[in-house]
Amino acid sequence: MLQKKDRIQKVLFWLSYVFRFIILIEVVSAAWQKDLLTLFAGIGILILTFIPSLLKKNYKITLPTEMEFLFVLFISLSLTFGEIRNFYETYWWWDIFLHSFSAILLGFVGLLIPYILYTEKRIKTTPKFIALFMFTFALAIGASWEIFEFGMDQIFGFNMQKSGLIDTMWDLITDGLSALILSIITYFYIKRKSKIPLIESLIEKFIKINSHLSKKR
Fold first, then answer.
1. Around 181, how many Cα atoms within 13 Å sit in the side-chain half-sphere?
2. More confident call, 112 vs 39
């Protein structure tokens, strides 16, 4: 079982670099074709995929391999495939899928720190508050992403916001609904100590590789 998990970890690790390599190919292709818009956007996208590494280096926060892979996957699907390869225009459901995906991913990220502090009895709080924090964290990042989309449209000439206000509002609604569903599941997970294997596994792994975060100063 342990060997199987190690293999999965290695596969996800290398898949993260496969997606980064795909972005690099887009950058080289854009440079060859003298497409400055795609070139600079591609470089920016590539830098974004290394945010987990920057967190580890500067803040000593290490994400589980699964979470780092999902982060790189989201950046690649959203910007490389969505914008550069025009998937937003080709597939009507692409935007909805990505916003649901991101809300769930960000909601889970928003769960980790307060949940660790809660289980370590470093803070006094309730399952309700943790679930609410998850929801508001995911929604706040979703709103920040809309600002990012606006910036990309204005600076690089992308069309990430499509129909403007209507697209933005539907994106935020999708973010909110997805985050709400995850928050409700999390509330019952903490309240009733239910067993949700995926969530439990990632939380335990995050706590293990970031044990220094729960140490009292």
1. 10
2. 39
